[in-house]
Amino acid sequence: MGSSLHKSGPRSHGNSKVMGITFWRVTLSLVCMVLGHEVTANMNFDVHIDKLERVGDTGEYFTYNYTYDKISDMKFSMGAHIQQLKELDDTYTVKALMARAELADGSEYEVMMDIQKTLCDWMRTVYKTYFYEELAQVSNFPHYDTCPLPVAEYVVENYVLDTEPYSEMMSEGRWKMEMMLVKGDQVCSGIVILTTVKPKA
Predict the structure, then answer these.
(1) Torsion, CA 26, CA 30, CA 177, CA 84, rounded to 10
(2) Topology classification of domain 45-199
(3) How far apart are the C-alpha atoms of 125 and 172, rounded to whole Å?
(4) What is the average per-residue pLDDT within 170-199?
């Protein structure tokens, strides 16, 4: 973040613990790449962001204000103010998906991770295991035993993301990553990222 940008039963495939870490780190890395414009997956690959789209009626549930500073090509500092506008309880579900396809046009995506959990279950499991300890050092994000989540304002300060240790987890191909908060059939808030990873010419 030198440049700043402001923006107003579970299923699993493969090793869900490793893929869970990979999904979230890669998602953050790709967001950083979109903001930084010149970051590559590693020394041998180029990454092209084909699509980055926020989905759902985000304004009904959250407002955001992000800041971003580039420390180096592979390291970023992030901050955020997130206003949660509605109480969120166990009638909501969190979905996280990562899939990969070969580069050839028409090749089908292979699902590498597909997790669906009610919000409270997500807080007690995935959030507790992979997020809470790290985020607690840089934010006022809720404790993993908090559910329902009350209306609140959350602040993240000086969260440093070093993408280099995770860059080699991506391989050549077309990648799809989705992260959604849903209620019934309604997507309340989410992000879809489509990327292409190719060897450098």
Answers:
(1) 100
(2) Ganglioside M2 Activator Protein; Chain: A, (2.70.220)
(3) 31
(4) 86
